[in-house]
């Protein structure tokens, strides 16, 4: 049996259990975003109704199977991480001026920037309310994760400092903006399933590495897809001058002694006025065929393999198999 979630699940019993628990998460998520105020209610439901992979709650539910995955606290932890993720999407889309999210108009396109930002804040508040019920340690973990999310966005916004390697700076941004919440998803799922500390540490480290690999794969997919896979307009990051790994590797190439005329020509397209759709499409097409995309893919593959090695101490079984398969699928989607 193959699951319809972000994680490939070959075990039918595991698939059935997780599907039932994910349905509980979905129900709780919709209850959590409901609001008596009609505008807040409609805006908060906007991205929930748009769907999504539910990667983070699924990771929490999956690793919880290494302990007692049936605990109610596990469901609440899964709701917390998805609420937090949804909140960041409202803010990210304003920062990036992204017109689409999950195939639907971004919230700021519907209600404007101020409403989108405040809706993200409302979702953070609901996540905080839910995590408070899980105890002080969960609150501390959530607060530290929130801090890393903000730092990642801050550092992406201001860019690398003088003398700082832009590629290493970008990898740290990805670790904070993306990997931190994926790691927290695994950590909370294992914690509240009663897993021993060594298991909690193992799945947390897996989440850190796979989170960066996941975003590097998305950098590739954003260039290679037509938008139907990501639900976003291809090249949005290029248009908004948001750094991605292929563009950073190209800039490093052009700055070095081995740059070719082709390298310079592609960079010139990226640095041109990309407000027009034709100019953006030309820049995306040129970068898509450049070998820096393959180098980005190679980095994603290497990190995914490192993540799999972190799983070594876990007991063999369907949970470990699903985590390994997810890492493999992540690599395949960027191929």
From TrEMBL:
It comes from the Bacteria. Keywords: Magnesium, Metal-binding, Transferase. GO terms for molecular function: metal ion binding; prenyltransferase activity. One of its GO terms (biological process) is isoprenoid biosynthetic process. It holds the Pfam family polyprenyl_synt. The keyword Nucleotide-binding does not apply. Its cofactor is Mg(2+). Belongs to the FPP/GGPP synthase family. This is Geranylgeranyl pyrophosphate synthase. It comes from Cellulomonas composti.
